[in-house]
Design brief:
The protein has about 375 residues and is an alpha/beta fold. The chain is built from twelve helices and 18 strands.
Length: about 375
């Protein structure tokens, strides 16, 4: 195997726990000696040993003189676990290949410095782009202290999410729907507007099993509800599978706020703008509540509000093999929209995938904040 193959294995290990490690990054580690893998590990969830610790435990005494492949710079600080850079130095490994430096200011090159000071050879940058993509939410949080915003669109080829009569089941196929549940398991929160609750009464939970995990990671359910119209009988209120946050304004009656809180729902009061929840204020409040990443699954209006504000970082657009047509069919993104094309949020396409007649297009906001641009440094 080549060095790139060992790093690919480390990345695949890290991906097993994507979503489960928040607020920590997902990290994988592979230890190699004499062309043979002697230790592997990945960070499983916050507060548990880091990837390097698991790999070193497996390698045992063989670790001395080995080469370590790790997807993120080994930590240099004492948190809930001791620094991994120090552990690697104590085991006298010969070389550490790091995909990318850690944007956390508590690490940010310090881990690599500890290794070099111990006489260990350090290489940085192998598959750095893939490593950065794996932890893009963590990176944005570390760089600008704002949640990473992901828009999930499931639409017809002509961009519609329902016919003129409101029919929408099913525009996309089973693969697309399963993929949507996987995305729910990766991000901290899933956000919808009050209309989605009133019309569909969804559960908003992840209902697929993940490889290597006993149970799916459940996102926090978040509802934008400026007037406090959410029924106390809504499934997101009554179901205890995961927690629910209602983001509202002073328009919400105090008795509704009290009743929601009594039912176990967290209520965040934020300023309003033109009668609606002010999005920047909502995102700040959600960040303070520990939400590093948000999957926007709301309807046309909610998606439109995020695109209007240029707040979307990443887009997963699932296209079914149908054309609905009709001027009254509901588009996937409404809102105000743009006057001129120069006002559009600039997109960078990342990938296109075809599966059983459906297409998944993944794209990024080219001007997003907190993007890790130093992949090759």
């Amino acid at each position: 195997m080549e060095p790139v193959d060992y790093m690919k294995k480390a990345l695949s290990l890290a991906k097993i726990a994507a979503g489960y490690t928040s607020p920590n990054p997902a990290v994988g580690c592979v230890i190699v000696k004499d062309g043979r893998i002697i230790g592997t590990g990945y960070h499983r969830k916050a507060g548990t040993p880091h990837a390097e610790v698991w790999a070193l435990r497996e390698a045992g005494d063989q670790a001395e003189g080995s080469t370590v492949y790790v997807t993120l710079e080994p930590c240099a600080h004492y948190g809930r676990t001791p620094p991994c850079a120090k552990a690697l130095a104590e085991k006298k490994v010969a070389k550490v290949v790091i995909a990318m430096l850690d944007p956390n200011p508590l690490v940010a090159g310090k881990g690599a410095a500890i290794l070099r000071k111990a006489g260990i050879k350090v290489e940085i940058g192998l598959l750095s782009r893939e490593a950065a993509q794996l932890n893009e939410a963590f990176i944005k949080w570390m760089m600008v202290k704002q949640p990473f915003i992901v828009a999930k669109l499931a639409q017809s080829l002509d961009g519609r999410i329902a016919s003129r009569t409101g029919k929408s089941q099913w525009i996309t196929n089973n693969w697309a729907r399963r993929y949507g549940h996987y995305l729910r398991s990766v991000y901290d929160g899933i956000l919808v507007g009050i209309n989605t609750i009133l019309l569909d009464n969804p559960m908003l939970t992840c209902r697929i099993d993940r490889e290597g995990q006993e149970a799916p990671h459940q996102p926090v359910r978040i509802v934008l509800d400026s007037q406090g119209r959410i029924p106390l009988t809504a499934r997101v209120v009554m179901d205890q599978t995961t927690s629910t946050i209602v983001v509202t304004t002073e328009q919400c009656p105090s008795e509704k706020k009290t009743a929601l809180e009594k039912a176990g729902v967290q209520v965040l009061i934020v300023p309003q703008r033109e009668g609606h929840v002010d999005l920047p204020s909502a995102l700040e409040a959600l960040g303070q509540a520990g939400i590093q990443s948000l999957l926007i699954e709301g309807g046309s209006a909610v998606q439109g509000s995020f695109f209007d504000a240029h707040m979307v970082d990443k887009i997963y657009a699932f296209l079914g093999n149908k054309v609905l047509g009709g001027k009254d069919a509901l588009s996937s993104v409404s809102g105000i929209g743009v006057d001129g094309l120069d006002e559009c949020m600039p997109l960078t396409y990342d990938s296109v995938e075809l599966n059983d007649g459906n297409i998944l297009i993944t794209a990024y906001n080219a001007e997003r904040k907190g993007a890790y641009v130093h992949w090759n440094h």
